[in-house]
Design brief:
Elements lengths: L7 E2 L9 H5 L11 H16 L7 E7 L2 H12 L4 E6 L2 H12 L4 E5 L8 H10 L4 E7 L1 E2 L4 E2 L2 H10 L3 E5 L18 E5 L10 E7 H5 L13 H11 L8 H17 L1 H21 L15 E5 L8 H10 L2 E2 L1 E2 L7 E5 L6 H17 L7
Parallel strand pairs: 1-12, 3-4, 3-5, 5-8, 8-9
Antiparallel strand pairs: 2-10, 6-7, 9-10, 11-14, 13-14
The structure holds pyridoxal-5'-phosphate (PLP).
Pyridoxal-5'-phosphate binds next to α3.
Length: about 375
Amino acid sequence: MQKVKRNILLNPGPATTTDTVKFAQIVPDICPREKDFGEIMRFVSSELTSFVADTEQYTTVLFGGSGTAAVESILSSVMNDGVIVIINNGAYGKRMCEIADAYGLDWVEYGSPMDQPIQLDHLQAFIQKLPRPASYLAVVHNETTTGLVNDIESIGSLCKANNMTMMVDAMSSFAAIPIDMSKMNISYVAASSNKNLQGMAGISFVIAKKEELEKERTTKPTNYYLNLSAQYKHFKETGQMRFTPPVQTMYALQQAIIELKEEGVKERYERYSQSWDTLIAGIKKLGLTHLVAPEHHSKIVTAIVEPDCKAYNFESMHDYFYTNGITIYPGKHANLNSFRVANIGDLTKNDIELFLALLEKYLQQIGFHSAN
Ligand SMILES: Cc1ncc(COP(=O)(O)O)c(C=O)c1O
């Protein structure tokens, strides 16, 4: 097999992929309405479900689209009556608020600091004080803005106690940080093909309880392409997506799933954690800090505080790394003064060591002297 030039992507997805995943896209042309292609999608759907739930009760609904499509599909398809509480402690929680607003949902925002864990007793009091009954709650698992991991198990218990349906944006945690939908009381999970799954960008999916998807809705749908139950029913009946799927991306995802099963989710997270430990020890040595404390950190994406130095400029640092085959990412929030480094994808701690060696040179070049 020919080798493809390897770039080290330290942006939080699309992640660095193996050559076997890249080449899995080179297949004979096929009409996606053929049974053979349906088999690929059934494999993908069933295996994705089995990473987080039992396939008898839960299923995965696939869409062609980026991750936001799955989040939007849940928010725009599921609500029937009652308020949705949306937890906002970063850019992706904020995005869910924007989606809720665009669809005119009955929603309330629960704001929480971006670098601190959610105070559950405060959240409980907030829910109880709402003037209208809250029936749903949406939360991001790993807030990619900072790397803060929200305690979805405890939030799930809180939802159970309050009789609320819980939806989780697990875009940047799925396939690395363990999730057990049944144990955690999660009704809907949104994720995509191109982060910890190490597949190509273009497939977005929702994992949900079949029973929920089969419920007849009493209200008129406000969406069309993203209609979750229509997509579920069509696939169940025909083995096809309602509209043209990203065919070659599906083959790549099939291969990525095979590789994840070979590695194991737990082992993948251990590999990521090793890279993260290397990163954190390395930046500390260089006199840099990061925003979220280790005990609340996902160990997947890190918001590093920008060096306090006149000559520092994110764009020039980005370009310096980029010409050396490494891609880093800007901060997501204007007030945070951070840049981001993700340690996901087909990378090891050796790649992080290379990043750190280059970072050291860059900091020397700009005359950064740590306060340590
Ligand atoms: C937590 C989270 N939600 C949603 C998204 C949106 O995904 P996409 O850019 O694929 O639409 C991202 C992307 O980084 C994310 O990290």
